[in-house]
Automatic annotation (TrEMBL):
One of its GO terms (molecular function) is metal ion binding. It comes from Polarella glacialis. One of its GO terms (cellular component) is cytoplasm. This is Leishmanolysin-like peptidase. Zn(2+) binds at H358, H362, H441. Belongs to the peptidase M8 family. The active site is at E359.
Length: 619
């Protein structure tokens, strides 16, 4: 910002009731300056007013709480330390999918910031009501894979990232944000981090921990994760399309949005995509801001010291002007021991497939971070999920998020489960237990085959792809959706009764049925899933004779369905257009316009036309 703009900087720290008088004073002073430039300086004054309004109003209107207020930052940190979470993670399956630290911050401040506007092939202004995504304006999504955080020389030279990762046994790393200095390197230095008893509390411990063998990023581990991410992302490219970025995808350089939070945590300084660096703890090369990349989204991968029972974490840390994630992160906490690392690398990488896809889908927007903060092309808020009351057959009641009528997920799930009675179908429920991530995962008892549930699911189903389409940022290629069987055709009661009732579902008959009626379901349920699954009647996958015909429950059948089957194909998506997302009204438009400029006088003059609508120098 030019040298005659310093007064504007004071605005962001003023109480709300003093903002407007201060802005008016700055404006009056600038309008009174003649200095031989008259009209030109009037335009500068108007542009300055616009900038001041942005600094003063946008942080308060776009967030539930002011990100520039240190007291608010202290309260947010205290809330995060006190929030309930599972003390023990599942012993089997993928383990808990930990909500990223930055996602928890965004949740408390309100709608995530849209600080990284991009250009697209066609105008995406919010006034284009009814805009849709289709095969003509979308292309397969292009990922730029950033693995810088896996290398010691990239992280140790960054003051924010130094000592966050383990590259040698018995080194010290930061858990949370400790205030004290790094402990002694002596072997007898006390390590207070008891992984076995602390569980997920380790992430908020705010102390120094000693690197164990399982924490160390070895060359074998690095090669494995790079291969696993590369393979999984290649699979996802075949399923998801987006409006392509025109030219280079470029991020913005700044101190970040949550300035008071970073000040409180002693994470100051200007960085390329600062919120990702400071909040997601990933290395972001300056070239992603200065030069950009030929991609639609950036995926940064890290190998932080594992949290017991947690195998991964994924989320977004930067969005464009319409809310589409443009930078997402994957924290891989699954490790292999030294004996496993010598096995076939390709085979090991395939074992990471569901973990990588699960967390990357979180980054693309599978979760409340995007479902609860998406807008239509006309600027109105889009309603994707709501909390609805559910009642079990034993009288137990709960309030669970459901995909609501009008969403593509609602329609896709209704078709899959064969619930043809609209009066009984209130939408697909999300996970109700455990509380960690309950609003960002499929319910295991209903969607056990899908990899966005907890457990052993491996399919990226058409229902999951439909949930991405509901955000208005993605177009699914359903020909690459992966098939589920669990619960298929079981009807409304199967979904709505929370498994207490298992109605008769659809069946398959024919000569091949005895051979392919062999779906296996594990009966060993880990402790943290008992509350979700204990009411489910176990399924017996065996063929039987029904009126002289070999018969198999559809969800047990592993063969190919007959060509004349009436069941909904798993690679058929919901009917109708995919409505594109937009920005959140005039205030977002003002923010988008301001963020396109670097603050020079000539560039700020273009904002005068916005300010003229608010005030004039001739007053």
């Amino acid at each position: 910002m030019p040298e005659y703009f310093p007064a504007c900087k004071e605005v962001s720290s003023l109480p709300a009731k003093r903002v407007w008088p201060h802005v008016r004073l700055v404006h009056k002073e600038l309008c009174s300056v003649t200095d031989g430039r008259g009209k030109t300086f009037g335009l500068i004054a108007l542009s300055t007013l616009c900038a001041c309004l942005w600094l003063a109003v946008v942080p308060r209107c776009l967030f539930l709480q002011d990100p520039t207020d240190v007291h608010v930052a202290e309260a947010v940190l205290e809330q995060m330390r006190a929030e309930p979470r599972a003390s023990k993670a599942p012993a089997t399956g993928r383990g808990l999918s930990q909500r990223p630290w930055l996602s928890r911050v965004m949740e408390r401040y309100g709608r995530p910031p849209r600080q990284h506007p991009q250009q697209y092939g066609a105008p995406r202004a919010r006034q284009l009501a009814g805009a849709v995504l289709n095969g003509g304006n979308t292309e397969p999504i292009r990922f730029h894979l950033n693995f810088d955080t896996l290398y010691e020389d990239k992280v140790q030279t960054n003051p924010i990232l130094a000592d966050r990762f383990c590259f040698r046994l018995k080194d010290w790393f930061k858990a949370g944000h400790p205030n004290g200095p790094k402990p002694s390197t002596a072997d007898d230095a006390v390590d207070v981090c008891n992984r076995a008893t602390m569980g997920m509390e380790l992430r908020d411990l705010n102390t120094w921990c000693r690197c164990t063998q399982g924490d160390v990023i070895t060359e074998d581990m690095r090669r494995l994760v790079i291969l696993a991410v590369t393979q999984a992302v290649a699979e996802l490219k075949t399923m998801v399309r987006v409006r392509p970025v025109k030219g280079k995808l470029k991020l913005k350089q700044s101190e970040g949005v949550y300035t008071a939070m970073w000040q409180k945590l002693n994470q100051t300084g200007v960085y390329c995509n600062a919120d990702c660096v400071k909040g997601s703890l990933v290395s972001v090369p300056d070239t992603l801001c200065s030069e950009g990349v030929d991609a639609d989204i950036i995926l940064s991968t890290a190998l932080p010291p594992p949290v017991p029972g947690v195998q991964g974490s994924g989320g977004f840390c930067a969005q464009d002007q319409n809310g589409r994630p443009v930078h997402i992160t994957f924290d891989c906490m699954r490790r292999v021991d030294q004996s496993q690392s010598k096995e076939n690398l390709d085979e090991l990488a395939r074992g990471y497939r569901t973990l990588v896809l699960h967390e990357v889908l979180h980054g693309l927007g599978f979760g409340m971070g995007l479902w609860g903060n998406t807008f239509n092309a006309d600027g109105s808020r889009r309603v994707i999920v709501k909390q609805l009351k559910v009642t079990d057959a034993d009288g137990t009641q709960d309030f669970v998020y459901h995909f609501v009528k009008g969403t593509r997920t609602y329609d896709a799930a209704q078709l899959y489960f064969g619930c043809h009675e609209d009066s009984k179908w209130q939408g697909l429920p999300l996970m109700s237990w455990p509380p960690s991530g309950r609003d960002s995962h499929h319910e295991t008892r209903v969607m056990r085959d899908d990899l966005m549930s907890y457990g052993y699911g491996t399919a990226v189903s058409g229902i999951t792809l439909a949930s991405l389409e509901d955000t208005g940022h993605y177009l699914a290629n359903y020909s690459h959706a992966q098939c589920m069987n669990w619960g298929r055709g079981r009807g409304c009661e199967f979904v709505m009764s929370r498994c207490q009732v298992r109605p008769t579902g659809s069946v398959v008959t024919g000569l091949t049925v005895p051979t392919y009626c062999n779906r296996a379901w594990t009966t060993v349920l880990h402790a943290s899933n008992d509350q979700a699954l204990q009411k489910c009647t176990p399924i017996q996958c065996q063929s039987r004779l029904d009126n002289g015909k070999a018969t198999c429950d559809l969800e047990c059948f592993t063969g190919t369905l007959p060509a004349d089957s009436e069941e909904a194909p798993c690679q058929q998506g919901p009917v109708g257009d995919v409505a594109a997302a937009g920005s959140a009204g005039w205030l977002q438009d003002l923010q988008d316009s301001f963020l396109k400029y670097d603050g020079s006088v000539e560039q700020l003059q273009s904002l005068a036309f916005v300010a003229i609508a608010l005030i004039s120098c001739t007053e």
